Prior knowledge:
This protein is of the alpha/beta class. It contains eight helices and twelve strands.
Amino acid sequence: MRRVYVDPAAPQSDAIEEAATWIRDGGVVAIPTDTLYGLAVDPFNAAAVARLFAVKGRPAERAVPLIAADAAQVTARIAALNKTAAALAARFWPGPLTLLLPAPVPLARDVSSAAGRVGVRVPADPIARAVCAAVGWPVTATSANISGVPATSDPDVVERTLGASVDLLIDTGCTPGGAPSTIVDVTVIPPRLVRAGAVPWSEIEACLPADHDSNARRSSA
Length: 221
């Protein structure tokens, strides 16, 4: 594994482009996010997604979360944002809110859920967004850990546990950590809370369009 140290305040463009090149070529890159370190691969490349599961040592039985450079990239490559999704994206992106959207046909099958949905967010981390922008489309952001081992905010742990399996590590130091992103399914009316997380449900409810907010549902799914 190659490890590149990047200053988040002044990231080297060549490091960002190197990460993007690896991802476009089917590689696995560990990148920082606004919570923990994640593993970025091309979600439209089935072989890359299969390799991602092999690196993590887990079967392809759960959907893989994606991150994007901005809402425009989500709309262009994943799905159009309906009224609810647009309102939530405008309020909470960049940030720890994942929206479940209809999965586009070209997406690798194991990235989306059995219901044909995929989770995506715009992270509040400039390096992660820059990588997505350089790739040209959203990338995966599943936690950079072996299945069953706690996720980490420490790049040293990423190198120690995954160094033999990952092509590149973009090291910006320890990430903030904290609660995982809140997940909301905006493909249904009313929208549904799928996983509680960093963004409180009460704040999400307050931003829902008037025809949805009084009927919003919670779910532990």
